[in-house]
Structure formats: structure tokens, C-alpha cells
UniProtKB/TrEMBL annotation:
This is FAD-dependent oxidoreductase. InterPro entries: Amino_oxidase, FAD/NAD-bd_sf, Zeta_carotene_desat/Oxidored. Coiled coil: none annotated. PANTHER family: AMINO OXIDASE, PROTOPORPHYRINOGEN OXIDASE. One of its GO terms (molecular function) is oxidoreductase activity. It comes from the Bacteria. Residues 56-440 form the Amine oxidase domain.
Length: 505
């Protein structure tokens, strides 16, 4: 995976590049893995509601509680900052994402998300029509692909492709349209039943059956699957491969009439960290970071949540009327005492994709060859990574200055041990080797690299998972709200699940 890195060792690399790891703490998370039994608590506290996990689902649950005037709650997370996979950061004063970096403009299927955006002032009704604040919509040019030695507009390979490739693009568009018309593809998914027809085989097998074999189409669809689910088209179920297109605006081959509807995206320098900060701002000290949930036990008169305060290094017990478990399924199954069967089953069948997100600080913008200018999203055909987004893309400053590129990579499940053991410099060298092809001046501009590793970043929607889906085992005292219950990982699903758990009386 790091082949070729050795070739970079030596005098080519600018010695002044500093860096290290950033983001989620493996050490804290793995305390739970290595713990034989949870120590007895030294301190006892009370709240009406405890929310375990302050990712998007936990934050949405907190907002919903407040909307119902339930103010006596705490939101606990093992990390010092809220947000989970959607957290943002800063490198040398420039905001940048550590994970999720955009939110497509939601359809009417996602009223909870629409209401949030309205509340945050991003969506307004003007002259009877909904409008989004342009400062937060991704500015043009949005995306480009480095293909056949130059940058082209959009991510679908087009430069110099033949008639046969174009015919495959057209046929795939027809298949997407047919899938879309079934009404089974929604965001968020209201029911998984309609997707079962596409759950019995991988996307690659389904494409084979449709004789959609064109290498450019296959590369593009594999890229989309790796980008959405952290695993390629030979791993994910057919419904997942179709989902991004069929649940949104379809697939538009060249020449198709898009009706002016290129997907509108909301994005910020710090990615979805902007939304995290907006959701966390009203919580004050009800958000408690550095709190590792060790055990959640349902009792006849309430719920007991035992937590390791990582700073004080002591165990505390929260006694609550109810608990919203906004933790990943594999963690929830470990900490919930006598976990209900649907939780055990979800944890047992979920395969998680690891991710690496590296923020690269550059002293100034990269030189660009004539042609397609730098975009927000920049992808390299055939690369092992998913390319990079430019954190300063939304910046209106006419004089470009220092910037941060956020490089994304879903290295595959087998790479998880390497995530733990490889030094940050190995990632730096791999990134330099890859991105120096379109950007020979990258070495001269790079000053600092911060690498965030997500060991169990997102559930991979493998064949069979949706057919085995069962609803979260909610009771009067315990509700479950994490993106894992959706079977695939996007803001809208996590937010809606969290909102519904918090809104329950
Ligand atoms: C690299 C990457 C890029 C992504 N890009 C996008 C994107 O652009 N757009 C999009 O819509 N979605 C994207 N996603 C998916 C999106 O980030 C998730 O769907 C969403 O943030 C999940 O929220 P969640 O609350 O369900 O889970 P999580 O983010 O997993 O939150 C769970 C929380 O629980 C905490 N926790 C875990 N164990 C414990 C414990 N024992 N005690 C206390 N706390 C604990 C964690 O620290 C975390 O904060 C991306 C995901 C990744 C990994």
C-alpha cells in the first residue's frame, strides 16, 4: 500500500514539513476493548436523560430534547470535542474537516434536516420558493478529474472516451432511472423493504448481469462506492451502488438534460464541523467530553450509565430516567448490559470501513496548468485515494494565500492494523507521491501534515445486510440512535435517527 514511498526518501522531500496524527484517540477507544470488567463508580450524578455519544445522532437527539423543553440532560463522549465522524479542525488557523465535509441540499423526504437548516438560517422561503444561502452552497467550479494527463470538468471520465463507453453511460442512466421510479430509494430510508430486490448480490455482480462492463464506467462507479461507503463495487450490495444516484438526482451522462439540476451541496471550510458547532453551541456544559461510557444498565426505576472520566481517571455513575444510545453498534453491544438481540445481531453483522483523512497545509496555492481550474473536489483517475477537497474553496478573498487540502482515503478493511502501526510520515510520503503527479510543485508548497485515522469509520452495506435489518430495540427507558442503524453512513440518516429518539416522549 505504501509502495514507492521508499523512492521518495532522501533529499527530494523538503525537510521543513512538520506533522503528526490528529482526530479521534485510539488509546481512549481501546481502553474499552482491553477492559476486563468495569470498576465500581466513585461518584454518582443524576439527569433526566443521558445521551451516550455526541456524533451527529447524539447532537440531533439533544436538539430534539430541547425542542420539547427537556433541559435536564447530558451528552457524553469519549472525545474532548463533539461531532464524531463529522468533526472539523484547524491547521495553522485554517478550518478543515476531519471527516464529513458536505451535505447535499435535502429533499422533502428529510423534513427534520430541512427544519434544522431553516433554523440555522441556511434555508429561507423567498417569494414562495425555498432558497439556500449561497455563501454555504459549494461554489463553482465544483469537481474535476485528473484523467489521461490533464484535468477535466466533472468526475465521470469523458476526455477521449469512445462511443462504446458513452453507450454504457447511457444504459446505466436508464437503469438508475428505472430504480428511481420504484420509489424504493429515499434519503433517509423510511423502509428497507423496497431495497431487498437489490440486496442479494454485489454491485459488481449486478453490473455484470446488465453487461455494464465498460472500464471507465466501472472505475467511476467503484470510486463512488469507495467515496460513499469506504468499500468498492465488488464489496457493497447492488442497492448501495445505485443509491447515491437513485435516491437523489439520478445519473446524468454527457449530453443528458440535467434541467439545470447539478446537485447542490452545502459545504464549509471545516466541513460538517460547521453543523456540529451549530448543534453543540446551545448545550453549554451539558456536553461532557473525555467521558468513556463503560456500561449502560437498564433497571426497573431508571438507567445507570457508568463512565470513565478520562481526565480525573475515575469512574462516575449517571442515574437517569432514560438513555439514548447514540454509539456505534459494536460499542453499544459491548457496553449495554444484556444487549437486546437486534443490537447483538447488528453488531455481529456490521463490517466497518476504516478511513484516513489528511490535512495538508500549503504555503500558497498550487500552480495550475491552463484548462480546468482548481475545484472544491479534485479526484485522480486510478488513484488508491479519493482525491482532495480544498478547505479555502468558499473563501471570497481575491488574493489566494496559504491553503489546506483535505485528502481522503478508504484503504480497505485489511489496512486497519496498518492504521495503528504506520507512522504519520508514511501517509505523508504516499500523499506526496500520488498528488505530485498532477501537482509537481506540491513538495515545495507543503509545510505541515495532520493525519486523522478512523478505525471503524462507517458500516459497509454488504449484500444481505438490508434484508437482515430490524428496527432498533427501543423501550421506554432506552432508545438507539446511531447511523449504523441505517446500514450506511450519511448525515441525513444519523440526524433523523437522533432527532426521532430525542423527540420520543
Ligand atoms: C471520512 C468520512 C467522511 C464522511 N463524509 C461525509 C460527508 O461528506 N457527508 C455526509 O453526509 N456524511 C459523511 N460521512 C458520514 C457521516 O460522518 C456520518 O454518517 C455521521 O457523522 C455519523 O454520525 P453518528 O452520530 O451516527 O456516528 P459517529 O460519528 O460515529 O458518532 C458516535 C460518537 O460516539 C462516540 N463514542 C464511541 N464510543 C464511545 C464510548 N464508549 N463512550 C463515549 N462516547 C463514545 C464517538 O466518539 C462519536 O463521537 C463521512 C464519514 C467519514 C468517516
Amino acid at each position: 500500500m505504501f509502495a514507492g514511498a521508499a523512492a521518495l526518501a532522501g533529499c527530494e522531500r523538503p525537510p521543513e514539513v512538520t506533522g503528526g496524527f490528529a482526530g479521534a484517540s485510539f488509546t481512549r477507544g481501546h481502553v474499552l476493548r482491553d477492559l476486563k470488567s468495569a470498576p465500581e463508580p466513585a461518584v454518582s450524578r443524576r439527569a433526566d436523560v443521558v445521551i451516550a455519544g455526541a456524533g451527529i445522532a447524539g447532537l440531533a437527539a439533544a436538539r430534539a430534547l430541547r425542542q420539547r423543553h427537556v433541559e435536564d440532560f447530558v451528552l457524553l463522549d469519549l472525545e474532548d470535542q463533539p461531532g464524531g465522524n463529522a468533526r472539523g479542525s484547524q491547521v495553522k488557523g485554517i478550518g478543515c474537516p476531519l471527516g464529513a465535509h458536505y451535505l447535499p441540499v435535502p429533499s422533502d423526504d428529510a423534513p427534520e434536516v430541512q427544519q434544522l437548516l431553516e433554523e440555522l438560517g441556511l434555508r429561507k422561503r423567498v417569494a414562495g420558493r425555498w432558497q439556500y444561502d449561497e455563501r454555504h452552497l459549494c461554489h463553482a467550479p465544483q469537481e474535476r478529474l485528473f484523467f489521461q494527463g490533464s484535468w477535466q470538468d466533472g468526475l465521470l471520465p469523458l476526455n477521449g472516451v469512445g462511443a462504446s463507453t458513452l453507450a454504457h453511460y447511457q444504459r446505466f442512466a436508464c437503469e438508475v432511472e428505472a430504480a428511481r421510479k420504484t420509489g424504493a430509494f429515499r434519503i433517509p430510508q423510511r423502509s428497507h423493504v423496497g431495497l431487498r430486490a437489490w440486496d442479494g448480490e454485489t454491485f459488481a455482480q449486478w453490473l455484470d448481469r446488465q453487461e455494464l462492463t465498460d472500464p471507465q464506467l466501472r472505475w467511476y462507479l467503484d470510486y463512488c462506492c469507495r467515496d460513499d461507503f469506504g468499500a468498492g463495487l465488488s464489496t457493497v450490495a447492488a442497492w448501495a451502488g445505485l443509491h447515491y444516484f437513485a435516491a437523489r438526482h439520478g445519473f446524468h451522462p454527457p449530453g443528458a438534460d440535467e434541467g439545470g439540476e447539478r446537485e447542490q451541496l452545502l459545504t464549509w471550510p471545516e466541513g460538517n464541523g460547521w453543523l456540529v458547532n451549530a448543534l453543540a453551541a446551545p448545550l453549554g456544559d451539558r456536553f461532557r467530553g473525555g467521558q468513556l461510557v463503560l456500561r449502560i444498565s437498564e433497571r426497573p426505576n431508571g438507567v445507570a450509565v457508568d463512565v470513565l472520566d478520562t481526565q480525573a481517571q475515575r469512574v462516575e455513575r449517571w442515574l437517569a430516567q432514560r438513555c439514548i444510545v447514540a454509539l456505534p453498534a459494536f460499542v453499544a453491544a459491548r457496553v449495554v448490559e444484556s444487549p437486546p438481540a437486534p443490537l447483538q445481531a447488528l453488531a455481529a453483522r456490521t463490517r466497518y470501513a476504516p478511513w484516513v483523512v489528511a490535512n495538508l497545509h500549503l504555503s500558497g496555492p498550487l500552480a495550475e496548468a491552463p484548462g480546468m481550474p482548481a475545484c472544491w473536489d479534485n479526484v485522480l483517475y486510478g488513484a488508491g485515494s479519493l482525491g482532495y477537497v480544498v478547505a479555502t474553496h468558499q473563501d471570497l478573498n481575491p488574493v489566494p494565500g496559504p491553503t489546506v487540502l483535505t485528502w481522503y482515503c478508504a484503504p480497505g478493511e485489511a489496512a486497519r492494523p496498518e492504521l495503528l502501526s504506520a507512522p504519520w510520515t508514511q501517509w505523508r510520503d504516499r500523499i506526496l507521491e500520488e498528488l505530485s503527479v498532477p501537482h509537481p510543485d506540491l513538495r515545495a508548497r507543503l509545510t505541515h501534515v495532520e493525519v486523522a485515522r478512523h478505525g471503524h469509520a462507517m458500516p459497509i452495506p454488504v449484500p444481505g445486510a438490508i434484508s437482515a435489518w430490524t428496527a432498533p430495540p427501543d423501550s421506554a427507558r432506552m432508545q438507539y440512535a446511531h447511523g449504523d442503524w441505517a446500514g450506511y453512513s450519511i448525515f441525513e440518516e444519523a440526524f433523523t435517527l437522533g432527532h426521532r429518539a430525542g423527540a420520543r416522549s
